[in-house]
């Protein structure tokens, strides 16, 4: 019997949102970690949290409006993890680039030539409002609604 090939549905866009307790009495790393959990960059219980350090590095350097290469991000992440006595796991060059790509897919980071920065040096709250909430999330909501309408018509 021949193997059946099942087509793979590839989403045009996606976002994960989770609600946690209010952000009170948290240090910078814990705040960044909760943000990453809230927007699906981390999974609950995930010990591989290098994306937290990559985002923290990008935020730190956005204050001085300094573009960073992926190698510079990697070096800063290593310093951060050493300073916080965290294991140096996930610091391979390829993984740092992958984490930067994940941040780019959520419009938090952008690539200019071969360097990276927080998108247009904006605040994360402004990026969320303008790019994620008003644009990305709105488009996803509209398409999901189209499916609700289509299935309602189909079912009768």
Q: Which helices and strands, and how do they pair?
A:
Layout: H1 28-38, H2 50-62, E1 68-69, H3 70-83, H4 93-105, E2 109-112, E3 115-118, H5 124-155
Antiparallel strand pairs: 1-3, 2-3
Helix pairs in contact: 1-2, 2-3, 2-4, 3-4
Verbal overview:
It is built from five helices and three strands, in the order ααβααββα. It is 53% helix and 6% strand. It has two domains: 28-121, Arc Repressor Mutant, subunit A (Orthogonal Bundle), CATH 1.10.10.10; 122-156. Strands 1-3-2 form a three-stranded antiparallel β-sheet. The relative contact order is 0.11. α3 (70-83) crosses α4. The chain has 156 residues and is mainly alpha-helical. The N and C termini lie far apart (38 Å).
Tags for this model:
156 residues; mainly alpha; Arc Repressor Mutant, subunit A; 2 domains
Distance between the termini: 38 Å
Low-confidence stretches: none
Would you give the CATH topology of the largest domain? Arc Repressor Mutant, subunit A
Helix content: 40-55%
Q: How many domains make up the 3D coordinates?
A: 2
